[in-house]
Amino acid sequence: YISNRYLKPYAVYNEKMKSDHEERSMSLIQLDEAIKNKEFQVYYQPIYDAQTEKIVSAEALVRWHSPTNGVILPSKFIPALEESGYITILDTYVYQSVQEFLEKECQDIPIKISMNLSRMDLMNQNIMNLILENERNQHINYEVTESAYSSLSVNANDFLSTLHQRGNMILMDDFGSGVSSLSTIRDFEFDIIKIDMGFVRNIGYSQSNDSILASLIEMIHRLEMKVVAEGVETKEQLDFLKEHGCDFIQGFYFSKPLIKNDFKKLISN
Ligand code: C2E
Ligand code: MG
Ligand code: MG
Ligand code: MG
């Protein structure tokens, strides 16, 4: 016998929860409209070679310029789009914008751009086919988080291996932040591991943090992969990372994500 008292929490669905949900979610029509009105803009955050301090690539990061609410960061709208699966529509748009930027504006500039693939994209055959069938995307790299990777289907695994074999780099994003399982980086040949900014933030504050970070860099190198440190904000963090052989640096110390034209200016010099 289970008392009603214990079942109750699961049955409760009040008006407040309903409105919270509606606030976060976006209908397909709203999303299409926003894309059509060019409210979503792709920003580019440069990624630097740690030794030469030259820009080698950039990460595409989307922002929503809402006519009513101003500039909105991904954490405010991406979770809801992932829940509904509509993130794939947005990521298709991001993909096309990145490709157009590379083709029309970066013809003579040797730059790679990496974009984020959501867990939902890796379950969607349409976006995977679009990317695979497109012969002109050799300068685009793909970032996948641990959690997205750990639930990968056979199709998605084939998709990532095919890209990797063609020379599109596959990056593991936010490494070390989630339910990190080392088997993920043992079982798939990632090209680059991006160490989560949580470790970078704690450089110089915790001996055990610094030890983990130094060992992570060494371990990744032994696996013949490269390392990006994310969220580098200070000279002290940069020096530590350089000293321990980190390959690439991304963070506000060098640059925030920039609108297309500013990024273009930066790489044209
Ligand atoms: P992420 O892929 O791990 O991207 C890195 C995030 O760190 C970005 O946040 C970037 O602005 C921020 N960042 C970079 N350097 C620094 C720093 O020095 N200090 C601090 N405090 N932050 C720094 P952003 O742009 O808000 O994006 C958050 C997350 O949203 C991304 O994390 C990614 O998971 C997701 N996201 C962004 N754009 C897209 C997209 O086009 N498609 C998909 N599927 N996800 C996206
Ligand atoms: Mg990323
Ligand atoms: Mg990241
Ligand atoms: Mg992240």
Automatic annotation (TrEMBL):
EAL domain segment(s): 24-269
GO MF entries: cyclic-guanylate-specific phosphodiesterase activity
Covered residues, full protein: 154 to 422 of 422
Protein name (database record): GGDEF domain-containing protein
